[in-house]
């Protein structure tokens, strides 16, 4: 088999996982309300159960893949599990059944992205393409939400969920040809100065990335509400902003692959965080859609730094437990969402319902993350001296 073929196959797997995630995740709340008819309390319980299950499984499952080395099987299994969960959700009509599926199937299947990147890093050719594969996920998030909206409008939620399930068919055909994982002890990071870290350094990273992921969660939550309530535009304009950011992310991820050879991951994340602060400020100050659309370059730079450089940094910091490192990184996103979104909503209520307060809060969270990362750099410098 030519050396380029395994890379193409792993990219195809990334596209499948990305499309499944982009189709299901943004529509879970809508599914709960419109398809099942859940109350607000039931919807909160449904989503909360999903996130808690995903949080636990994305640490436990990668741990077992580290111990037993079942990385390729775990990736394929998680994709199939997503398809089974989607099919069952397509036929369920009550809150209890949906809740059980969220806990028992959908939560564990949410480990697929983390499992994929730990598997990719453990393959001989894949380890140098972790950042580039993030671009594939951005491509999936350009097409996925739009495709999901089309399927919902055409065939309703059953059409969407069957489409998600069918995505697993290429995986079953490609799985036998995927490259086999090798020992992670020889893996290396594409980032300059990315080295194994002690427990405190990893803890500092986790705190910083929880804050950064909280920022992203708040921005995603607040943007549609600012578009519809402050700018008084249709919700499709919020979709345009998200799609524009995702499209810009693709070349930025590819550029990050080159930058990573010359700059440390800490520097890349801090620069991206500064872009995030500027974007939050623009979103707060201006009430002009063209300005916000132009500012998506800053938003994309922030996302690429956190999602691309961040994951590679975590994996390089715990090289002997790449599955655990990836699961730990993925859980900063879920912890950030649990931290950022409820507190932002509370602030919005305190300040009279203006969702621009939420993006100002997001900028503050990013500044806190920059401070934590800077403290981590000082600690690392002192520990080496």
What fold name goes in the CATH topology slot of the largest domain?
Growth Hormone, Chain: A
Number of strands: 0
**Into how many domains do the coordinates divide?**
2
Average of the residue pLDDT scores: 84
Oligomeric organization of the protein chains: single chain
GO cellular component, one term: plasma membrane
Membrane topology: Multi-pass membrane protein
GO molecular function, one term: transmembrane transporter activity
Organism: Rhizobium altiplani
Reconstruct the topology from this structure.
Layout: H1 4-24, H2 28-36, H3 40-68, H4 71-91, H5 95-109, H6 112-121, H7 130-166, H8 168-174, H9 199-230, H10 236-259, H11 265-285, H12 289-294, H13 296-317, H14 322-350, H15 356-384
Notes on the structure:
- The structure is a single chain.
- By secondary structure, this protein is mainly alpha-helical.
- It folds into 2 domains: 4-183, MFS general substrate transporter like domains (Growth Hormone, Chain: A, Up-down Bundle), CATH 1.20.1250.20; 199-384, Growth Hormone, Chain: A (Up-down Bundle), CATH 1.20.1250.
- It contains 15 helices and no strands.
- Helix 13 (296-317) packs antiparallel against helix 14 (322-350).
- It is globular.
- It comes from Rhizobium altiplani.
- It is found in: Cell membrane.
- Pfam families: MFS_1.
- This is Major facilitator superfamily (MFS) profile domain-containing protein.
